[in-house]
Design goal:
alpha+beta, two-stranded antiparallel sheet, 5 helices, 4 strands, rod-shaped
Length: 107
């Protein structure tokens, strides 16, 4: 079976399409890396607060401040990994193409 030759218009279309795809993929600037994690704080639990609703009305401002500081110490900060579709470029050249999926969808 002989290979079919592409017509001139098809070759031009494939070349332009390939160039456009490369430009769009490079516009999100993959050379500066990606943001693959997000800062995250564990949610506060009632045990962290140790304050009943009835006690809140009788608390002074100092008591409220002390409770807030205790709650901040109880909350742990960290980071968690993002799934691939939510990765973003660290410094994209074109802002609206910072995500990987946006770059692929645009091409």
């Amino acid at each position: 079976m002989a290979p079919r030759r592409l017509q001139r218009r098809q070759r031009i279309g494939m070349f332009v399409g390939s160039c456009l795809a490369i430009v769009v993929l490079l516009a999100h600037n993959p050379f500066n890396g990606y943001l693959t994690e997000t800062p995250w704080t564990n949610p506060l639990t009632p045990e962290c607060l140790n304050v009943a609703k009835a006690d809140v009305r009788t608390m002074t401002q100092a008591d409220i401040d002390r409770s807030i500081e205790q709650a901040k110490q109880c909350a742990r900060e960290g980071s968690r990994d993002l799934p691939f579709p939510q990765w973003t470029s660290a410094q994209p050249w074109v802002g609206w193409i910072d995500g990987e999926s946006h770059a692929y969808d645009s091409a």
